[in-house]
Amino acid sequence: VEPAAPITQYRERAGIIDLSWGHPHPDALDTRAWAGATADALVRHGWEALTYGYTAGPGPLLEWLGAHVGRTDARAATTSETFVTAGASHALELVTTLLTRPGDMVVVDSPTYHLAIRTLAGHEVEIVGAPSDEEGIDPDGTAGLIEAARRAGRRVPLLYLVPTYGNPTGRSLPSRRRAALVEAARRVGTRIVEDDTYRELGYGGEAPPSLWSLAPDGPVIRIGSLSKTVAPGVRLGWVNAAPELIRELTGIGYVESGGGVNHTAALTMAAFARSGGYDVHVAGLRRRYARQRDALVDALRTAAPPMPVPSPDGGWFVWLPLPDGVTARSLRTVAEKHGVSFVEGSVFFVRRGGERHVRLSFSLFDEDVLTEAGTRLGRALHRVTGTR
Amino acid sequence: VEPAAPITQYRERAGIIDLSWGHPHPDALDTRAWAGATADALVRHGWEALTYGYTAGPGPLLEWLGAHVGRTDARAATTSETFVTAGASHALELVTTLLTRPGDMVVVDSPTYHLAIRTLAGHEVEIVGAPSDEEGIDPDGTAGLIEAARRAGRRVPLLYLVPTYGNPTGRSLPSRRRAALVEAARRVGTRIVEDDTYRELGYGGEAPPSLWSLAPDGPVIRIGSLSKTVAPGVRLGWVNAAPELIRELTGIGYVESGGGVNHTAALTMAAFARSGGYDVHVAGLRRRYARQRDALVDALRTAAPPMPVPSPDGGWFVWLPLPDGVTARSLRTVAEKHGVSFVEGSVFFVRRGGERHVRLSFSLFDEDVLTEAGTRLGRALHRVTGTR
């Protein structure tokens, strides 16, 4: 007899508060609202909610998304600029399928989301980390890298980054670099794939305008997600791009064969949005995750040796630089003995880098658990630096 | 202002009964049962139904699918032989991604599902139609084709077919050819991708054992679907294959990043199955689609000039051979003037073939509409053959 297969991806580790999971807090997942929205969509649309859907996504969700982008970013999207996906990662997979060929070079921010690197790698492209510094990706250096590759005969169709409340850094690319990066991409003829998953989870002022909103003439493909704001299990995200690219997405064989990629869930999301539930829900999430961030950061600042502990303006992650002489690898062994874990920074780099950073996720746990986690990690840092 | 985007893929054509759509009958889509199953899953599993799921699919659905395959095919699957997909086409996309490289040769049945050909083509492989006759694919001829390609230095990783109540033919491959094809695939080292979408929609005796069930040692990858038996909009299908291939599927970047490909829908399906609703529902579908098939076939046999009109044992399609001197192209023009349409047979072939067949789908319409469609097509056939 086989052991029972699990239900969720999350695996608990006995005695360890594991800050490596970028998963939502259980109380942020509104099961009652989703059941209600499902019933609403099925009554309102009847059998049309269960059959093959319009390939770009059902009209009611395309229309809500277009207006929603206008409320959360610097310009709205038309329905012909919008395509519903089964999550942000699926959006990246589809766009990469369209734009790349094996042997191409693809540039990614340094650091960047590790599973995006894996998704790109599945397309047998050469992945190269862009030059970057404390403010994020360096536009001129990146353009130079791409131009050099071009002169050597390489195709460089795609540049991937998470410029707003980024994973893993929590940082946002400054405005002048946004403009410069869009201009550079236009000049060198490379498409920017902007993963904008965390835009709506800002805890201070407004999120900066997306790269997509700065470039109406099409060099940027923006990926949105409903995994952090609504629920990852429902598998919904979207793409905003020039109508020509949207049409190419609808022409992918299995997308047309399936009648869109997640029709019933998409109409359920439109019902949830129509109920007014979405805005109230996301406002609550921002308060929740800001408190969770503070619990972790405050505990760490209190318990750790003197060292900078950044507090991100949005997203789910603290990107913690380690004291001199401490590597993520060496810290992890000690930290796990103290009952806390994390992701080592090197995971977010294509080749070398990140050995002296760790990513701490504060999304999954209650404030008191995060306080305990920060305290344990602080003690582990004292241990490895010999300060206590 | 843009026109409102549609909700569904189906487009009505004024005055034409369009038999080209392989879509379910609206009354076959049980909106109340799906709303109930959603509520059930969300109450039973709580937040675990909305978070990132176990990558191969949530345990409750893997377990039901394994046993379900045992009830509808000649052997059950273990959970380690099962992977939940977002529909059968998505399963084909994933498997093709794993097994093929650009420039490979891929063999498909002749004729076969046209959007499978398109899905394969997206992977930049050379697609070659297998030799076949009235009984279906020819195992020896196919093995010879693959061996010749191998001798010429080609990789031939994959053979695709729909051997049971096939699309477009409605036919099932005879037992001795099944055994011979599996043996041939084993010998030449090519994986068979068996699209088994229509297995449960048989209207006479039992469906033959799948190719997968004949070959426990792994040359066959079986694709199952819930689009025809439950609803296409929910986007659920599955793969049965050797555990090693299932592990490779769970390693695909965007699949791991997403926590499986359709977690909430998968748990909803498990709830629907647990309620006992599935078996009753599918028994009703078999009666429904058998009546719809009969309405179309009977009307055509009555109204058309003397000619063979096959009545399929299962699935959704009549594959109609046309009388001497009539092509699908010439018939379609006349048929549409008579208020009926269909898909021309050539669409289901890689290169030449099918010019004198049409595919008629009886899935979408009421019996009286199908009677009218058969009558109109009969009249059009009289017109093109000059018999009335």
Question: Which features does this protein show?
Answer:
homodimer; 388 residues; alpha/beta; 7-stranded mixed beta sheet; 13 helices; 14 strands; 41% helix; 13% strand
Word description of this protein:
2 copies of one chain form a homodimer. Chain A is of the alpha/beta class and 388 residues long. Helix content of chain A is 41%, strand content 13%. The first copy, chain A, has 13 helices and 14 strands. In chain A, helix 1 crosses helix 10 and helix 5 packs parallel to helix 6 (175-188). The first copy, chain A, has a 7-stranded mixed β-sheet, sandwiched between helices. A 3-stranded antiparallel β-sheet of chain A has the order 11-14-13, covered by helices on one side. A two-stranded parallel ribbon of chain A has the order 1-12. Chain A starts with 16 loop residues before the first strand and ends with a helix. At the A-B interface, helix 1, helix 2, helix 3, helix 4 and helix 9 of A face helix 1, helix 2, helix 3, helix 4 and helix 9 of B.
Listing every helix as H and every strand as E from the N terminus to the C terminus, the arrangement of chain A reads EHHEHEHEEEHEHEHEEHHHHEHEEEH
- Portion in beta strands of chain A: 5-15%
Strand count, sense and barrel status of the largest sheet of chain A are: 7 strands, mixed
* Gross morphology of chain A: globular
Number of DSSP E strands of chain A:
14
**Greatest interface (CB-CB under 8 A), with counts per chain:** A-B, 81 and 81 residues
Specify the helix fraction band of chain A: 40-55%
Protein structure class of chain A: alpha/beta
